[in-house]
Design brief:
This is Glutathione-dependent peroxiredoxin. GO terms for molecular function: thioredoxin peroxidase activity. Belongs to the peroxiredoxin family. Prx5 subfamily. By secondary structure, this protein is α+β, with helices and mostly antiparallel strands. It has a single domain, classed as 3-Layer(aba) Sandwich (Glutaredoxin). About 30% of the residues lie in helices and about 30% in strands. Helix 4 links the parallel strand 4 and strand 5. The chain is globular and about 40 Å long. About 35% of the residues are buried.
Length: about 170
């Protein structure tokens, strides 16, 4: 079943490559409970099929990096990119995209969280296995306030510009 507006984010974990060691977070991949991260925060989340893929690298991530200050000015506490890749790849991609410290590059290595959202997709015909659909969510204290899911190979509604217009 696909998540919808008004639903609470499902339980689950995501991993993030941490660039700077802090108390409680070691350098390298760290795993986080989504519910703990979302508690009390307004989060712009976007999911995409894969790191280093054309639309994801040329448009999706750069759009959120570019509009991060405007999203934060409207009350968004964090921006997350979720992709079915490992934390090492997501960390490297984040550095390449100049997203470090702007967008949290969250790894869903086995697509477990994408499946929990009901937003997984079969990309086997492209040799990529199970991936994430392309989407964006606005979440407030763990509850979905906006949901934009792309149809087919489109990139029309999950972009940063659309979500920025939807932030109340």
């Amino acid at each position: 079943m696909t998540i919808k507006i008004g639903d609470r984010l499902p339980e689950g974990t995501l991993s993030e490559f941490v660039e700077t060691e802090t108390e409680g977070c070691s350098l390298g991949p760290n795993t986080f409970q989504v519910a703990d991260l979302a508690k009390g925060k307004k989060i712009a989340i976007f999911g995409l099929p894969g790191a280093y893929t054309p639309t994801c690298s040329a448009q999706h991530v750069p759009g959120y990096v570019k509009l991060a200050d405007e999203l934060k000015a409207k009350g968004v506490d964090e921006i997350w990119c979720i992709s079915v890749n490992d934390a090492f790849v997501m960390g490297a991609w984040g550095r390449d995209q100049k997203a470090t410290g702007i967008v949290r590059m969250m790894a869903d290595g086995n697509a477990a969280y994408s499946k929990a959202l009901g937003l997984d997709a079969d990309f086997s015909k492209f040799g990529m296995g199970t991936r994430s659909q392309r989407y964006s969510l606005l979440v407030d204290d763990g509850v979905v306030k906006q949901l934009n899911v792309e149809q087919g190979g489109a990139f029309d509604v999950s972009n940063a510009e659309t979500l920025l217009k939807q932030v109340a």
